[in-house]
Specification:
alpha+beta, elongated
């Protein structure tokens, strides 16, 4: 079988695998330093705790980043069912807990499939969305995390439950974990999808792991993908 040709990349545009624990901006700046450049930018921010594909422009490449804005994204996520947090991921304080042991693979798979299509969902309270000229995460740090986040139009193109682990964890036997692949339109928050999944299943929920595996035609398995250290 003939191999599919890789999509072209403009000069000074890189496919970067961002590690967990580092901001997208810092990851772009580290790559720029490795290339001997001072200026850096990226298209499509990844949360600090998320890992995966980031499109980075360094030097003159920053001018070409506009061509990569708005591309659809693919994510692999593990959703923790039975626990919500203030940040909708494992970084935040526990907000609510409930027993999720009654859930089955069939139940979760049916709800995941039903989430395909346009959705109007609240953005995460800890996000860069602006409210009244201030970013939500700034307001949250000021103790205003009870502020009702605005709704955003999001869209799920495809969603698949890859695995559902019914085995109780010894430290938290009431929790269950769902491994899901989401194909979404640009601007869709996976943390919002995780919370909505829990709401539809009748349990609190949050992300415990997230990896972006594709941006438009660019895939994390592309041999041109580069990696950096978290230090």
């Amino acid at each position: 079988m003939a191999s599919v040709p890789l999509p072209d990349l403009p000069p000074h545009i890189y496919l970067l695998k961002k590690p967990s624990g580092i901001s997208s901006r810092r990851a772009a700046e580290q790559l720029a330093r490795l290339q001997g450049k001072q200026k850096a930018g990226h298209a499509g921010t990844l949360d600090v705790l998320a890992e995966g594909l980031l499109i980075v422009g360094v030097g003159e490449g920053t001018k070409a980043l506009r061509h990569f804005v708005g591309l659809p994204k693919t994510y692999e996520a593990v959703v923790c069912l039975g626990r919500s947090t203030t940040t909708d991921d494992r970084e935040g304080a526990v907000e609510e807990e409930a027993d999720a042991r009654y859930l089955t693979y069939e139940q979760v798979a049916e709800v995941v499939r039903a989430m395909v299509g346009p959705l109007s969902l609240p953005v995460p309270r800890w996000s860069a969305v602006r409210v009244g000229g201030k970013r939500l995460y700034h307001l949250a740090r000021q103790g205003k995390d009870s502020l009702t986040p605005p709704l955003r139009q999001m869209e799920v193109h495809e969603a698949t439950l890859v695995a559902f682990d019914p085995t109780p964890h010894p430290d938290a036997p009431h929790l269950r974990h769902a491994h899901i692949v989401w194909h979404v339109a640009s601007g869709t928050y996976i943390r919002s999808l995780a919370r909505e999944l829990g709401r539809r299943l009748g349990v609190p929920a949050s992300l415990c792991w997230l990896q972006r595996t594709a941006i438009g035609p660019y895939n994390i398995k592309d041999p041109r993908v580069v990696t950096i250290s978290t230090f």
